[in-house]
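Notebook entry, structure prediction.
Reason for the run: the old model in the group folder had no record of what sequence produced it. Starting over properly, with the input documented here first.
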Amino acid sequence: MAVVAGVAVTEGAAAGRVVTGSVGTAGVVRPGPVEVLGGTGPTVADLALLAVVAARLDGVAADLRRAAAALDAADRALADPGPPAGWPGGIPSGALAGRATIAAAAAPPRGAAALARSAEALAADLRQVRVSYAAADDGVRRALLALRAQVAAARALLPLDGAGTGRGEAWTALVGGGLPVAAVTVLGQVVGGPGGVPVAAGRLAGLVDGPGGDGVVVRPVVDPPQVPAPRDAAGVLAAVGAVASGWACRPGARAVVGLQRLDHPDGGRAWLLLVPGTVEWRPGTSVPADLTSDLQLVAGRSDPLTAGALAVLAGAGVGPDEPVLLAGHSQGGLVVQAVAGAAAGTYAVRGVLTAGSPDVPRALPPGVPVRHYRHPTDPVPQLDGLPDVVGGDVTVVRRDPGLPASRAHGLGAYVATARAAEALGPDPRTAAVDAALAAVLGPAGTTATTTVVELARPPEDR
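New structure, fully documented this time:
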């Protein structure tokens, strides 16, 4: 990473281009650069291989040192002050040429001695990297051992065969009436490693009183707030927030889903599904945007929010050839990913946008481009316990908003990140979603009609 005039410039094929990113006066942290990631995953180090490579570099350095000594000896042999006795003329021209060749072979930075020093330095660096990785592994291992001791009782409640104690007692013993979603990630790591998070989420969902199925009651909202037709990805995310904020002044938590019908000037029609995040941080409530649905979505199980969103599309009469874009924040991002998989072959889903959401374990349909907006200081996208899934149809747009975790997850911060990314101009890695946005949002003059529905969990599923 280079720093030019106080701005961090990330280099490399997998990196993005820069909007801002600096530390101002008095240590005030400003938003960081925008990165577009695709085709690469987390850093993986083979500690044994690092040791082997370092040893081989030592051998190369030793060979280069010997070569440098041989060149020096040859140069001294050719540097005799005069010609052999009885030689007619001066120093032989071949000797002069030989010394010139030796000088070229020994000259820095490509000389044998200089290359030997570089090989030795690289070997030392690799050994230090190996020590650092080993120390990090040891720290993680010790932390997980401590976590194992702390959650031993919880692990006993999550047998892999699905058996267990009474759900009410288990739930009370485990969470005391409220479970931070981060505990799912911890339990998943303890139960079965990174891939165990969906397993743990499914087991915890099963501990909730009531069947927690995918039953849902859909109630259309009379005279919903009309949201202007968005013109770009940032506008789409802002529309998700507008649908959610329309209920901020109402008493009680409500699960809502918005659907915009976009009428293009040429007579064409497209649709935009807008799904906000969790509103009830307790399990088994009448509001399906609750902790139970979070667990069901992370586990890849059927859930009422996905069922409700599909019912909204069906009830609106969305045509099979009319382009649809799905967008969601936090839990809503999980929902729209699940909808994309369930709607394949029924609706013309052109793309998916999520903000602050983890990946879902369900397979997304091929050919549907997905763009995730994620902040490194937002812990929610990593609650699935897995590295970001990128490459192919999936890209991740990442930026440090310069905010603490409590605010980095906010939708407003993600709208700002989307605007910062758009300020960079076209990027071939995001071209597929850009094309989907153009097809759905349409040209200037497109009008929007916003429908909002309230979702409720039926009594038998609470």
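Summary: The domain at 217-461 is CATH 3.40.50 (Rossmann fold).
The old model has been moved to the deprecated folder.
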